[in-house]
Write a structure and sequence with these properties.
alpha/beta, 5-stranded mixed β-barrel, binds 8-iodo-guanine
Length: 271
């Protein structure tokens, strides 16, 4: 099958995907979508009871799992305490996979077509603030899109003011008042930044550097969803600390933070 959605109308495929999800889950309309980036995987379990779990590649427009062995899924969950339903998108297409912006945006278009009015985008990233030790969750206040790309095509001049909802950031802070916030810059990747590029990102006003999220957020705004973005700082960005962090330390920091950030995310989603 065509894996870049290049010869179809991406919104038609999103409608097909949403119809498939509604049919398989029996949930006519979902309320909130979540994208779980690296380190955030544990949140789904804490959200509530799984209604259905669908292998992503069965859903129109989603690709076969990139990581062999790991079957990416889309999960429908009844959020405990609130009765709302969550759609957890277990597979994110990164821009660096070279499959084009339509694939990157597909999850957002599908979530909106499935009824979602809110999306929580999470990711793992590098931090420029030395106070943010690996394992620190940081609310995304705004973004700098360094990919030179847009998920939006044609003369659709979408406004991006308050793209990362200040209302939802306040809700998050009622759950955990210690949460800091920062500006997230997306690089194309898949290589990490040089120290000079990290310094440049700082000069431009970024506090976090990653390889996802900004294109998804723009696509989510285009389809009218309210957006909350949360980054997990898994490492200090290149050059910020004199000693290079070992990959093992990055993995351990992400795992150690798992339970806390998963509980945080579940509590926010229940609000
Ligand atoms: N661009 C970028 N992406 C990342 N993802 C993770 I985890 N750490 C980083 C990082 O230091 N830079």
């Amino acid at each position: 099958p065509d894996d870049t959605l290049s010869n179809v109308d991406p919104f038609d495929i999103a409608a097909e995907a949403a119809a498939y999800i509604a049919q398989v889950t029996g949930v006519e309309s979902h309320d909130i979508a979540l994208v779980l980036g690296s380190g955030w995987g544990g949140a789904a379990e804490l959200l509530g009871e799984t209604i259905a779990e669908i292998p992503s590649h069965e859903v129109p427009g989603f690709s076969a799992p990139a990581v062999h062995g790991h079957v990416a899924t889309i999960r429908s969950i009844r959020i405990s305490d609130s009765g709302k339903t969550a759609l957890v998108l277990g597979s994110r297409t990164h821009f660096y996979e070279g499959k084009g912006v339509r694939k990157v945006a597909h999850g957002m278009r599908t979530a909106a077509a499935a009824g979602c009015k809110t999306v929580i985008l999470t990711n793992g990233c590098g931090g420029l603030n030395p106070n943010w030790k690996p394992g620190t969750p940081v609310l995304i206040a705004d973004h700098i899109n360094l990919t030179a790309a847009s998920p939006i095509e044609g003369a659709n001049f979408v406004d991006l003011t308050d793209l990362y909802s200040s209302r939802l950031r306040e809700v998050a802070r009622t759950i955990d008042s210690s949460l800091d916030e920062g500006v997230y810059a997306q690089f194309r990747g898949p290589h990490y930044e040089t120290p000079a590029e990290v310094k440049m990102a700082g000069v431009l006003g970024a506090d976090l550097v990653g390889m996802s999220t900004t294109l998804e957020a723009i696509a989510a705004r285009q389809v009218g969803m309210e957006i909350l973005g949360i980054s997990l700082v898994t490492n200090l960005a290149a050059g910020i600390s004199p000693i290079a962090l070992s990959h093992q330390e990055v993995i351990e920091a992400g795992q150690a933070a798992g339970p806390r950030i998963s509980a945080l995310l579940a509590d926010i989603a229940k609000k």
